[in-house]
């Protein structure tokens, strides 16, 4: 798999920041496309690489990519204090900045995957395949290309659409409009869902995953009836159902943890255990990335490390450090039970307070949620050993906050006594989100009863109280409760902002989206760090309306010397933008060779 991943490099500007000339493939290489993509086995190998790319977003060994989707939005911030950590978007998210590392990594990951998908799309019709094999291979490639373009347009806005394999150095890309790209990937997914297989091996793309992505595409282009119909195909087909009874296994280490109650595990605990996500009996899973211990291509990920607080640095009322990260297997054994976090995902006060809305919600049960009241000083030499943290003494925001324990804490199989990394399969799509997407589609149509009913399906499984009526804010609050650090938060919020502006709803317009948009207003309603511009380390937390989209890095624009990549409006360089192309079949403006 790694051979496909790293040696099938085709020249395209957006793959990385280095010069495009150095990315031209050597046609004499044994692993060149000419030698490997000559039959179905070669195509299947590249599809494996595409499937593996889905894992990369949640499979980083340090600095989980999904942090950017959550910290750059409405419910969390990066609590790390160094000056090179993004807090102040106005100063630190620019075309030339490095603090917003997720921007360039997402861009490179997306276009690398698009490049690989285009190799299949361009070459598959030329090799010997049956009609059904060709349709399936094309459907999978179109899924992956559409998946990443869906992400790109809601992360960066207008981007270049690359429709075919690039076989020689290319320096003349032009930007396409968001709407053109969304319309194109919707059309592509309408084809793909017809030919994606119903049953696949874990990690591969099936028909339900295609319908899931197509539902999001239909929402993006305001085809709400079609979004409802596509989501309903999966919800109603009988193959998928929310998990409501316990299943799978719990790793034995958890059963020994003093912070957990062995009698209080429930279906939501089981749902998020790494060994249960890909089980055949898990009827909620739709698409799950594969990352298992001691398997080829797997790697430890920093999910626990990134999302958990630096509780081990907390100080007592005397100002003395009263916690330690050296109690693995002894004393309170907090380092194994909580991991050695670095505080890169601090939840807002609003998100913390949602816990108190319903005491019966299983998502906040004893084992699934580790509340702030449960942290204790664990250094045996401290006079406060075993006592709860003193709120007045823990002054660093990244040292003390609640965590979704069932989702964020994993057992480290490698024997690391700091328990900060682990392998795990991860959900890309599961049925609960599809109910919430359909609820949103109903809301856009003004059908509040049906929107509320779909939200209540998800809440009922969590044993939360049912609600009488929902609005858009409530649907996205529910998405946070159910999909915390699971779905791409910023992408989905920006999608709604784009819909609002496209429909001229609530005073929002496409023309003024960089100065007035639903995304920014939502952040200001939910994230007190940005509202109060709290100082952490060298910078305050600050976000402005134009941060609804991320900047395209100057290195990509500069290297595209024979074309024109527009800069995201609001950022330096956008004053030279030209009209984006509105036809994805067109790769340059009229009148240009």
Automatic annotation (TrEMBL):
Keywords, alphabetical: Cell outer membrane, Membrane, Signal
A single Gene Ontology CC term: cell outer membrane
Location (main, coarse): membrane
Subcellular location: Cell outer membrane
RagB/SusD domain mapped to chain residues: 380-571
A Pfam family of this chain: SusD-like_3
InterPro entries per UniProt: SusD-like_N, SusD_RagB_dom, TPR-like_helical_dom_sf
Span list, region Disordered: 566-593
This protein's record includes keyword Signal: yes
Keyword Membrane: yes
Domain of life, source organism: Bacteria
Compositional bias per record (Polar residues), positions renumbered to this chain: 566-579
Domain SusD-like N-terminal stretches: 94-201
UniProt family annotation: Belongs to the SusD family.
Protein name: Starch-binding associating with outer membrane
UniProt source species: Arenibacter troitsensis
